[in-house]
Amino acid sequence: MSPGSKFPLIICRVLVLLDLYHL
Predict the structure, then answer these.
(1) Which domain of life is it from (predicted)?
(2) Mean pLDDT value across the chain
């Protein structure tokens, strides 16, 4: 697994966590 493909997954996960916190 290259770090380049792992980075977008981290961003998506952070966005989901932010959405949950806003709710």
Answers:
(1) Eukaryota
(2) 85
Whats the size of the chain, residue-wise?
Answer: 23
Contacts of 12 (CB under 8 A, 6+ apart): none
Q: Is the pTM of this model over 0.70?
A: no
Please give the full DSSP string across 1-23, using - where no structure is assigned. --HHHHHHHHHHHHHHHHHHHH-
The Cα 2–Cα 13 span in angstroms is: 18
